[in-house]
Amino acid sequence: MCNNMPTDALYSMKNVDTQQYTDQFMEYYEKYSDDIFRFCMVKTRNRDRSLDITQETFLKFWEYIIKGKDIENERPLLYKIANNMIIDFYRKKKAIQVEDFSEGSYNDYLHDDEQEERMSNKIDGQKAVALLDQLPGVLGEIVNLRFIHDFSISEIARTLDIEPATVSVYLHRGLKKLREILESYEQ
Questions:
Q1: In this structure, are 120 and 184 located in the same domain?
Q2: pLDDT > 70: what percent of the chain?
Q3: C-alpha distances in angstroms, 57 versus 20, 28, 36, 115, 133?
Q4: What is the DSSP string of the chain?
Q5: pLDDT-flagged residues of the chain (< 50)
Q6: Do the domain assignments include residue 9?
Q7: In whole angstroms, what is the distance from residue 169 CA to residue 171 CA?
Q8: What is the rounded CA–CA span in Å between residue 157 and residue 167?
Q9: Most exposed: 12, 93, 110, 186, by fewest CB within 10 Å?
Q10: Do residues 157 and 167 lie in contact, with contact meaning Cβ atoms separated by under 8 Å?
């Protein structure tokens, strides 16, 4: 290595770079970790798996940062990493686990009005997610990112690697299909 700098100066520069990367990473982690976790929960419906995928997502993101790659927009990048991790998980594990409700009944969890309201809200949320799951492929993904995760059209386009105009068309089709699904339930 041909370098005129003293070893101590090189070491100190590496520490400054590492600290800069660490600060940048922690900023993004604080800002997006809860959102990424919720995204994973919607996709996996398993808290432990979602925590693992969130952790793996940020590990991959950390590797991306320390390589010094330019990050134009971190939010779509994080969602893209998380989505790829979820896809990898389902490829590895074909069987989808279903919670076992046989050990207790719904009424066992109701002790007061507040808990009843929380349970009702949870069930309503689960019904909404179930309706979104009925949307085919990318339509459900786009509606989910737009309305659950509050992505802009351009952020969705970057996350899914498709044109913004295509996102708008798919969003319109997804909402139309969702209305049809809701109307069929109301009848």
A1: yes
A2: 71
A3: 20, 12, 8, 33, 23
A4: ----S-HHHHHHHHHHHHHHHHHHHHHHHHHHHHHHHHHHHHHH--HHHHHHHHHHHHHHHHHHHHTT---S-HHHHHHHHHHHHHHHHHHH--SPP----TTS-GGGG--SHHHHHHHHHHHHHHHHHHHHHTS-HHHHHHHIIIIIS---HHHHHHHHTS-HHHHHHHHHHHHHHHHHHHHHHH-
A5: 1-14, 95-111
A6: no
A7: 5
A8: 6
A9: 186
A10: yes
Q: What is the dihedral of CA 120, 122, 125, 127, to 10 degrees?
A: -70
Please count the structural domains in the chain: 2
Q: Would residue 6 count as lying in a domain?
A: no
Kindly state whether residues 64 and 121 are assigned to the same domain. Answer: no
Six-digit token pair at 42?
């919607």
For residue 168, the one-letter residue type is: S
Residues in the chain: 187
Cα–Cα distance for residue pair 12/7, rounded to 1 Å: 9
Rounded Cα–Cα distance for residues 57 and 65 (Å): 12
